[in-house]
Design goal:
By secondary structure, the protein is an alpha/beta fold. Helix content is about 20%, strand content about 20%. The strands form three sheets. Strands 9-10-11-2-12-1-13 form a seven-stranded mixed β-sheet, sandwiched between helices.
């Protein structure tokens, strides 16, 4: 049995698409073999270490990383995203926009919820209406405030009517944004979720573990363990994209074990009492040390996580554009990446990662240039004082 670490350190991120720990980790496990040598472990079980319990497994409510990652295995959205963040079918086979205020979705007819109920347009309408009406206190409500009404002409058709054009509307309907729950779902969905996804909920023990089992009736396919020989691996933006290939090895059950301490997670991976550590759950130094162990496999793929500094434009110093530009020129990001992050990052020039369909490479960039930073601060009226200090800022 080989443990797997999955790392995608501090790469540019655009929205919730960046949280793909579950997707990457399960692929990594199937690639290195999930058969355990632990005598008492059930065959086909993957032990996945997470830092904390998901806050809420109702996909209309949970917005923390653990909730959304696990929800993406239990629930489906109307749409999903591919590696370039392009929209692809999920519960909706196809869709059209006859005018800027109308979206028509044609649903799959071969989908069942984990309890055997057939999935229909009524479930989509209920999910949206319960979020918008306040029946469920959904923090995702803001993404649908421009929805005027939802119609269901038949069991396999859903029509959304908007109050005004909304360019991001379709991306708000993807799997990682919101999952579809059965009609009539109430507060129990948070503790006993029922979805249509590739894995079904089994049990949860507070602050200890959460267990999922494979859904034998799942309409899609789990990605293959690894790409065919000679083909590069690409990080999926949809945890279980349809048509991705054969089912992933012999994974029957995933046990998410809560281990808050980073050092303990690393030790469990090293001694083989855990199979997988999630995306960015270890520091670059710790991950580097673990990858030197022959029994540990590391998957390192471009991610979408973004680290940034936001400026207060009301500050009398930072309101000057030249000061903000000078700070950018004065930051030696290459050295920070090389030594602090062990090379596991790239300088961001945009909120969007290079693999995003809307990424624009032709933007102004700010390479490390302390001389230019000095010139800009002089021009902005902030000369060096006698003590050599130009300005004071609070981060």
């Amino acid at each position: 049995m080989r443990a797997a670490i999955v790392q995608t350190f501090r790469r540019p991120r655009g929205g919730r698409a960046g949280r793909l720990a579950v997707a990457f980790a399960i692929i990594a496990v199937s690639a290195c073999g999930c058969g355990s040598m632990r005598e008492k472990e059930e065959p086909g079980t993957v032990n996945f270490l997470i830092e904390s319990m998901p806050i809420n497994l109702d996909p209309r409510i949970g917005t923390d990383g653990q909730s959304e990652d696990i929800d993406a295995l239990i629930f489906d959205g109307l749409l999903a995203r591919d590696a370039q963040m392009n929209l692809i079918p999920d519960l909706a086979e196809r869709w059209e926009t006859p005018d800027p205020l109308t979206y028509v979705f044609h649903l799959r007819r071969d989908v069942k919820f984990h309890d055997g109920r057939a999935f229909t347009s009524a479930d989509v309408k209920f999910t949206m209406d319960s979020s918008l009406s306040g029946a469920v206190q959904s923090p995702k409500r803001g993404a649908f405030q421009l929805v005027d009404s939802v119609e269901t002409p038949d069991d396999a058709t859903v029509v959304f009517h908007l109050r005004q054009p909304y360019a991001s509307f379709l991306w708000s309907l993807t799997r990682l944004a919101i999952g579809i729950v059965p009609k009539g779902s109430g507060a129990q969905e948070a503790q006993d979720p029922i979805g249509t996804g590739p894995f079904r909920f089994v049990s949860m023990t507070a602050d200890e573990e959460l267990i999922l089992e494979r859904n034998p009736d799942y309409f899609g396919q789990i990605p293959p363990a690894k790409p065919p020989a000679g083909e590069p691996s690409s990080p999926p933006q949809n945890p279980i994209p349809q048509g991705a290939g054969e089912e992933a090895g012999n994974i029957r059950r995933v046990r998410f074990r809560v281990v808050p301490e980073e050092v303990v997670r690393a030790l469990e991976l090293r001694k083989g009492s855990a199979d997988v550590g999630g995306v960015n759950s270890l520091t670059p130094d710790m991950a580097l040390a673990l990858t030197k162990q022959p029994e540990i496999v590391a998957e390192d793929q471009p991610g979408t996580q973004l680290a940034y500094v936001a400026f207060n434009f009301d500050d009398p110093t930072l309101r000057h554009m030249e000061v903000r530009q000078a700070l950018a020129y004065a930051t030696d990001r290459a050295t920070l990446i090389r030594y602090l992050l062990r090379g596991q990052a790239r300088p961001a020039a945009s909120l969007l990662p290079p693999n995003h369909w809307a990424y624009e490479p032709n933007v102004r960039r700010y390479p490390y240039d302390p001389v230019q930073a000095e010139r800009l601060l002089d021009a902005a009226g902030f000369p060096r004082g006698k003590d050599g200090v130009r300005i004071h800022l609070t981060l």
